[in-house]
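re the bet — no i am not wrong, look at it urself. input seq straight from the record:
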Amino acid sequence: FAVGEWLYKLGLSQRFIDKISADEDSAKFIAEKQCLGEYDLSELKKMTPGTLGRTYADHMEKYALRADFYSKVSGQNTTVFCMMRLRQTHDLWHVLTGFGTTSPEETGLLAFYTAQNEAPLSPFLMASALVRVAIKDGSQVPATVANIVKGYSLGLKAKQVFALDWQKNWNTPLADLRRQYNITDVNEMRLSA
């Protein structure tokens, strides 16, 4: 988060805002500055299996994650709003794309972000993750690179996800949302040579 805020303070976020704003639905969403509202994971857990809400609650429980893990950024401008929106919805993007939470899978989600919105932090984190696995555990390099390729390809093909109204879609089957946003579950993707 500190690096993201540093990049923002350096003024490197305009491309990110331009990319998101180019999508009509996202531009409207940004103008309204709709943050993710309050929700109760225990209530989402009661939803029908396979819905966005239930799958998200299962994901959060499986990985012992907190919905408010992110640090808040002060300010009210468009860039701050967009940064906060991505932080608030990070684990929902995991659920929508099918990326898990291992280091290679997190890197794949960063590649998806990069293709979708060109946030300056994502490529920085991808590069540092690749260097980290190369130094610490070279056996993870192939999985990391494969996930980067999958994530970027998936992000390019998908409809812009930034303005997805997650809370209005808690009861929507995840498979329907993936079809609507042209997202193939990353676990079903095959890389071609």
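see?? DSSP finds ten helices and no strands in the chain. told u. also The chain has a mean pLDDT of 86. so pay up
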